[in-house]
Amino acid sequence: MNVPCVRVPREAGEATRRALADSNLLDHDHDIVVDAGVLYIPVAAPESVPDDYDVVDYDVPERESRQLPEDSLGYEPSYERLGDIVIIDEDDAERARTIADALVESDIRAETVVNRASKIQGELRVRDWDVLVGDDTETVHREYGFEFLLDIATVYFSPRLATERHRVVEQVQDGEHVFDMFAGVGPFVIPCAARGADVVGVDLNEAAVDYLRQNAERNKVVDRVTAIHGDVRDVAADYTDWADRIVMNLPHSADDFLDTAVAVAGDDCVIHLYDIQHEDDPFGPGLAAVRAAAEPEYDVEVLTERTVRSYAPHEDNVCLDVRLTRRE
Fold first, then answer.
1. What domains can you pick out in the chain, each with its CATH number?
2. Which of 76, 87, 187, 245 is the most buried (most CB within 10 A)?
3. Alpha-carbon distance 118 to 135, whole Å?
4. Quick count: other Cβ atoms within 10 Å of Cβ 170?
């Protein structure tokens, strides 16, 4: 029967499905359908789907009964998928174990189930995990047609940012110089390189840089990727005036590195600055910091002010896209 669906290319399917699920917009009574490389994802509230998605009516079958975790639990647990790892976030150890058992008994694919055991910690941005099922914290995450090998025990990675990463990557032009100051395993670096950019990715976490190099090979972009282990403030001297685009995804402290970003920026450079700010003024502090670092050498133009997601009560994870144009 015809039902409202979000229509996306197949390679964008998982990231789109996850974004819709995070917003409680999925229609769980109908199956997702693939037709000629296009995915049709049924949605329960089409009027609430963001305008940047393509919503159409499409003939999809009703979903056959399958075992879900809530069938045995009596409630719908919160979890997210990262490759074949399922991640839960429960303070109560007994409740976490019960949810893990229900996931294993369900039709959800879960080779490993982990519970968050700490917040993100230290300069390397890693966290502790309680492994409840399985024993392998390394996995391959697929996003918009790219594969990322990673180990959640040694690197930071958020699948929830897939849509935001894709938004930035879609702006990249062939031949650009892109500098990712906090690159991790390469979720910005790899797709930017695939669009024809020369990309430098820097990270303080040696394990992340090792995975970045492996992911460049895995995705066949190794000739356009330079992966550097180190403090970006030390690396920047080798790339003065080099970048056409800079990614600064270190939300709590990226503004501390704006002087370094300005040193790397070329005559005309776009900076994607990620920040955590109070909802009353989510973009003002970041813009003030950019102006303080860049002016009067550069003119500063705001291109986009985007709320990526809610981070905490009254705090938002935001992205400020600004263009720096060197004054003559």
1. 2-59 (3.30.70.2580), 69-136 (3.30.300.110), 158-326 (3.40.50.150)
2. 187
3. 18
4. 10
